Amino acid sequence: MTSTEAIQVTGLSKTYNQTVKAVDQIAFSVHPGEAFGFLGPNGAGKTTTVAMLTGLLRPTAGTAIVDGVDVFANPTLVKKKIGLVFQESTADSDLSGRENLELAAALFDVPRSETRARVDGLLERMQIGDAADRLTKTYSGGMRRRLELAVGIIHSPAVLFLDEPTLGLDPQGRAGFWRYVQELRKEHGMTVFLTTHYLDEADGICDRLAIIDHGHIVATGTPSELKDRVGGDVVTIRPAQPDPKVETVLAAVPGVLSVTPQDGAYRVKCPKGDALIPVLVEACYKAGFGLSGVSLKRPSLDEVFLEFTGREFREDEGASATDRAVRIGQVAQAFGRGRR
Amino acid sequence: MMRQLVALTRRELLRIARNPQAIITSLMLPILYLLLFGQGFNFPYPSSDISGAPNYFSYFAAGMAGFVAVTATLFLGANVIFDRLFGVLKRNSATPASATSIFSSRLLAGSVQPIGLAFLVLGLAALLGHLGLAGLTVTASLGVVGAIEIVAAIIILSLMFASLFLAIGFSLQQPQTYFAVVNAINLPVLLTSAALYPFGRLPWWLKNIASYNPVTLAVEVIRLNLFAGSGSYYTYTAGVYLAGLGAWAVAMFVLAVLLARRALAPAK
């Protein structure tokens, strides 16, 4: 089987103990040079998918071609072509940063004549040159993450897998990490497959996204396409007293595209939410319904997630609102991209 | 594959060198036995009971030199478990390095260091004799061949136990379980070998068991080369004992490779 795509996945499934379907019949492709994000909450199947695509886990069914190689027929060859950054630190704490990189270079069979230059170059680039000969057990969390990235790319892989690589990093650390990844992409045309449950990272970094939930891919597209599918702004109207008639009142307001009940409130889709809020509020009061809250959301990946899964992205699995607000700016800046 | 093996072995040796506590701990038990058990049980036995050794302590010291191969390889399996818990094993599995390289590097690094420790135990046992205590007395003229035989016995015994402990390490997930299992192996191995007891005084059934114990096989090679006339108390030559020891080592090696390959294969 051949493929011109960097990653081509067909009918990939993983069932644990014949009962738990971690990944169920997923299919997608990643173009060469693309940054493709797998977005979903914990337990959605992201890490299981990465483990299968990198030859660390056997699938129950399906095929996966990475850089032209069938992962399950030839996992060793695939491992030569890919880099992998795990969500946890896997650097050897009894070795220095330099020794970790030298070991990785030998395991990936980087030409001996190039090893020294690559190791020195990566240590400097990841800003751990001054600590290169210190044992990594003395490194900060950010330094360890950057070392992980350096280990993952020591052999200049065609495809770099990043499995929630910024988990536990502070906002500055995250922004720095993604800046390095972006630089590498620009220089080497490396394909990046990343999993994250940070919506802002996915929005700022990925050319295309797949939203995965309960082992199923529920949507695929560019961040813009996915947001467009939400259909505009979302005004959330929360009545003081729940009453099903509120939905009818809201749906009758000119300009409203749809009304969806959600947790005692109503999500009203409309092209220009800020202009429609006074009209919606007035309509409710005229019909005799008091309101306890009104909010406006511009289309975001939170909305996209809600649209395709029917529930809020679980905030407790991501970062705090403040943290995310800071990161949105930093990640977008690091990638030279704004948010819609 | 050779480059990967060398790189991984270097990593293991660096790790051992940077954590000398493991080596010190592995020496504690044999040294404690030398100081307490060896001194306390140094009664006058007929030569026939202690395989021609000049005294029980000398006989016992040779036994401890062999036993150090067990204690010095104990931590190898624990290292596998901790490497799995800390993600190092997963990192290595994500590279093109073969399971055989990952396993063999640990085996090689772990089997080298008991040689020095065994001679350290013998040296300490000899030193005790100069401190007014019972000490090791070498009555044979140890030539190059004899020294090589002793080194070979310790290396093969170390390879065998390193394989065994690595096999256990690759099979288990939790360090607590590992230590429970190796403790259940450690003492019975010692107590069913000729490292401790005057062999001539053993009941027939224990003598039969001890004759096949790999520690016994290694210790007999050491005693054959340290004590003049001890050959008359042994059924076989050092070469035969080494061959028997080699059979043990091959069996354990095969078992360990199979378990390591299973542990390092893509998860099901």
- Total domain modules of chain B: 1
How much of the sequence of chain B is in beta strands? under 5%
Shape of chain B: elongated
Derived from helix and strand composition plus strand pairing, the structural class of chain A reads alpha/beta
Mean pLDDT of chain A: 85
Number of helices of chain A: 12
What's the number of helices of chain B?
11
Our measurement of the CA-to-CA distance between the termini of chain B, rounded to an integer number of angstroms, reads 25 Å
Segments of chain B where pLDDT lies below 50 for 5+ residues?
none
Structural class based on helices, strands and sheet pairing of chain B: mainly alpha
Radius of gyration of chain A: 23 Å
Biggest pleated-sheet summary of chain B: none
Instruction: Please give the radius of gyration of chain B in angstroms.
Output: 19 Å
CATH superfamily of one domain in chain A: P-loop containing nucleotide triphosphate hydrolases
Task: Write a brief structural summary.
By secondary structure, chain A is of the alpha/beta class. Helix content of chain A is 38%, strand content 25%. In chain A, helix 3 (97-107) packs parallel to helix 5 (141-153), helix 5 (141-153) runs parallel beside helix 6 (171-188) and helix 6 (171-188) runs parallel beside helix 12 (321-334).
